[in-house]
Specification:
heterodimer; A: alpha/beta; Rossmann fold; 5-stranded parallel β-sheet; 17 helices; B: mainly alpha; about 0% strand; globular
């Protein structure tokens, strides 16, 4: 009898822990944009899908990209989207869409950053729809993550306890239920333009955040493995795939052009190995796309919205030509970083 | 997958469920399967090394069992020790030796350069090698019968929770617990989870936070003043203890879930009154390993007996008796230094500790005389506190070798502490803004106080776990819920590091 009571108590305690954890998730976690983006993607009908990280999410204007490539474009680039995240994001998108083209925007920092601030980067997994792919995603990626990021998901939001009332109200609102981005807590200088593109207003004061500089010894082989899996996934589904790197702050590049060149060479080699074209828009000549440091809101190279819109027109045009095999690289790109940015 | 990964806990929980569902005689199989599968997640190359240790030690001990000739047994022992320690030393010290040789070539203008080898260290190699070699030596001395089943032996070598960072177990204590299949007891689960949560709290609330400042300062000592280095060193002592002891808490807690009880590895080390005592309270299983397998055999060896006789003749009875012990201590701490890593700073760290213990042993009779002359009541509480403080300072000086990047940096830090000490630099804002927000400092301070209080309680013989377990259900559950959830709001969020000793 005593044993039975002990078991019942243990069970009740476990349920209590789970309930409390869920409750804290509900009242503390702020509605994120990833949820809206997944929902939009799940509506289907996209012909072009871009995956990548924050440079892409701020730098690729979906509407302009669609116009240039004659189709509907969905920007599935999200901050903290590593290659394995990108793979599963793409898997989810392919369940609902039959795109002709996939663009993988490669920010080299994600190849060399060992993903050590893990629990800060779980928004994509958390917003991922509950499918079998989510289980695979969990096994391959999340199981290696720190337990707080998965089991105590509210860890990152616990300081939002002051906003509990607002959070509950938001989560009960119609807008939340219809996946409207209006309920998302965003930077006041950001406007969500739909289809995954975040437009940052130029009033946002430039910040000094610098990126990581290329170091080949730090390349995470796992990221490269997932790049290959993305390529294979596209090939299996008869989708054209192209690797790109969107433009970054020219002043930051001019500091260490040789490091950017080394990153470029590495990615280019990978792309060649996987049989994919690679377009590094940091080599885009200034006459094709004039840019200056003021067009980027940080030294790492995230674009302001207006720059992104202008850039995407050229980006789409070049990608279009590349896919049609009519692109003459010399018309748009410098040969080397040294040619364009000089020597450090 | 590390100790703080979701996967690790899922593997442990899944295995636990299967363990208790299976008939008793098969339970050890699931433990072996779990251990090997988890180890494989670090790469197949790890398996070659541990596989070699398992197979070679098993074969040698089986051969020892059928041999009656002492000479053959000794040869087999030496073969086992040489092969397994050989791998460990080669992997740890090959590139270190090459680096030093290259430096020598440069000094002597020899145009030669040896390229370093791309060696990968299998995880936990130091721990499982030491554990396995203790088994080999025990079999040699016929302390117990060798294990006949190679798979059971493999489990002893590779048991997951302890594989990565100890504690270093002994076969005679562990084998019955590992192989016989333990009954499910809710108390084991309750205590195990308590211990895991406590370990995680130590790691995520204290260690990771303290490490931010400690590593920032100690990794570039030339940029900081003596006062800042001292403050960082104190944080390093918190980091070092909470990281290692926290990891061991997780290991011990996980093993408890299966009804397996490991030896304790820490006993409030910062309350030690001498460096010797410190090493009996810090990494206890390594200390006892060294005592049993290096110190005693070395002390009672023929050459040491001869040296003892010589020393007694030359330096008198008292000193002559202590000198062999001093030498044995120096040897042990040299090995401890070498064990810590392939760098001169670790060798100096070991030598520093060995030297202090050796000198303390030599001066012990004089201390008593001095204490009498100065009218110090050595049995008084106050004197005990002075001794604790003295030991803590000595331990922290030793941590400089551990925390700084190189031995040279450790000496620079010492110099700065003596010659460039400015209190005001602690409060001018720079130190406080080295990577922690004010909230982090507050949490660090409060958590340290809590750790101190619990340590004092333990020191006074209060068994906190039993104390909590005896409380009414509501209080107990409240404490457990707090423990389960504490690391979310109070744990450090940022660059979390792997457990320091998991890389040994």
């Amino acid at each position: 009898m005593k044993k039975k009571t002990t078991w019942i108590r243990a069970g009740i305690f476990l349920i209590l822990v789970i309930l409390l954890d869920q409750l804290l998730d509900y009242v503390l976690i702020q509605p994120g944009l990833a949820r809206t983006i997944f929902h939009e993607s799940a509506q289907g009908g996209y012909d072009i899908v871009a995956v990548g990280a924050s440079h892409g999410s701020y730098g690729i204007a979906s509407q302009e990209l669609g116009e240039e490539l004659d189709g509907r474009a969905m920007n599935l680039c999200m901050g903290g989207e590593y290659m394995y995240d990108a793979y599963y994001v793409l898997c989810e998108a392919l369940h609902h869409n039959k795109p002709k083209t996939v663009i993988l925007d490669v920010d080299y920092q994600y190849l060399i950053n060992q993903h050590d601030e893990s629990i800060l980067f779980n928004q994509i997994y958390n917003a991922y729809p509950a499918t079998f792919d989510k289980f695979r995603y969990f096994v391959t990626k999340m199981s290696k993550e720190e337990y707080r990021g998965v089991l105590l998901r509210w860890t990152n939001y616990w300081q939002c306890y002051k906003d509990i009332k607002t959070t509950i109200a938001k989560k009960n609102s119609q807008a939340y239920k219809t996946y409207d981005s209006a309920v998302v807590n965003m930077n006041p200088y950001d406007i969500y333009k739909g289809d995954g593109f975040i437009y940052r207003k130029s009033e946002y004061k430039k910040v000094a955040t610098e990126g990581l500089y290329w170091d080949e010894s730090k390349v995470d082989a796992n990221q490269c493995k997932y790049m290959k899996r993305i390529v294979n996934l596209c090939k299996r589904n008869n989708i054209q795939i192209i690797f790109t790197t969107v433009v970054q702050d020219p002043d930051s590049i001019a500091k260490y052009p040789e490091k950017f060149q080394a990153a470029h060479d590495y990615i280019e080699q990978l792309a060649a190995q996987y049989g994919v074209a690679y377009l590094d828009f940091n080599l885009l000549t200034y006459d094709r796309f004039a840019r200056k440091t003021e067009d980027f809101y940080d030294k790492e190279g995230h674009m302001y919205g207006e720059t992104a819109i202008q850039f995407t027109k050229v980006y789409g045009e070049v990608i279009g030509q590349s896919l049609d095999n009519t692109l003459n690289l010399q018309d748009y790109f410098a040969q080397t970083y040294k040619d364009l940015y000089g020597q450090s | 997958m590390s100790f703080i990964s979701v996967g690790y806990f899922m593997v442990i929980i899944g295995t636990m469920v299967l363990y208790y569902l299976l008939p008793k005689r098969f339970r050890w199989c699931i433990l072996l399967l779990m251990s090997i599968s988890f180890y494989l997640t670090y790469g197949i190359y790890c398996l070659y090394y541990i596989g070699f240790t398992i197979v070679s030690t098993y074969a040698i001990t089986r051969a020892m069992a059928v041999t009656t000739q002492k000479k053959t047994r000794k040869r087999l022992l030496l073969l086992g020790l040489f092969a397994n320690f050989g791998i460990l030393v080669f992997l740890k010290y090959c590139n270190f030796t090459i680096g030093n040789l290259n430096q020598l070539f440069t000094v002597f203008h020899i145009k030669m350069h040896i390229s370093k080898l791309g060696l990968l260290m299998p995880l936990g190699i130091s721990f499982y090698t030491f554990q396995t070699m203790s088994y080999l030596i025990d079999i040699y001395y016929q302390k117990y019968e060798p294990e006949k089943n190679i798979f059971k032996f493999a489990l002893f070598v590779s048991f997951l929770p302890q594989l990565l960072q100890g504690p270093i177990g002994r076969f005679d204590k562990l084998a019955p617990q590992l192989f016989e299949g333990n009954d499910f007891e809710i108390k084991n689960v309750e205590y195990g989870l308590q211990r895991i949560a406590w370990g995680l709290a130590k790691k995520l609330i204290l260690a990771d936070r303290a490490n931010v400042i400690a590593s920032a300062v100690l990794h570039s000592v030339s940029s900081y003043s003596g006062s800042q280095i001292v403050a960082a060193l104190l944080l390093f002592s918190i980091y070092e203890y909470c990281d290692f002891a926290g990891g061991i808490d997780v290991v011990i807690g996980c093993a408890e879930l299966f009804g397996i009880h490991f030896d304790e590895n820490f006993r409030q080390p910062y309350f030690s009154k001498s460096i010797g005592e410190f090493w009996r309270r810090w990494h206890i299983t390594l200390g006892t390993w060294m005592k049993d397998y290096v110190f005693y055999p070395f002390s009672i060896s023929k050459s040491m007996a001869r040296f003892g006789k010589y020393a007694k003749k030359k330096f008198g009875r008292k000193t002559g008796r202590v000198l062999p012990v001093c030498l044995a201590n120096l040897l042990i701490f040299f090995i401890v230094g070498v064990w810590h890593g392939a760098a001169w700073k670790y060798i100096l760290y070991g030598f520093y500790n060995g030297l202090i213990i050796a000198v303390s042993n030599l001066l012990k009779p004089h201390y008593e005389v001095w204490a009498k002359k100065c009218h110090i009541r050595t049995a008084a509480k106050g004197w005990g506190y002075v001794q604790m403080l003295r030991t803590f300072i000595l331990v922290n000086i030793g941590w400089l070798f551990d925390g700084c990047k190189t031995a040279t940096d450790a000496f620079i830090a010492m110099k700065r502490i003596v010659l460039d000490f400015h209190y005001h630099e602690l409060w001018d804002g720079r130190f406080l803004k080295l990577g922690l927000a004010m909230r982090d400092w507050k949490i660090l301070l409060i958590a340290t106080v809590i750790l101190l209080i619990t340590s004092i309680m333990k020191e006074r013989g209060v068994h906190l776990r039993d104390y909590i377990a005896a409380k009414p259900l509501v209080i107990r559950w409240a404490v457990y819920l707090l423990l389960v959830f504490a690391t979310a709001p109070f744990g450090y969020v940022g660059t979390t590091t792997e457990f320091m000793y998991a890389q040994f």
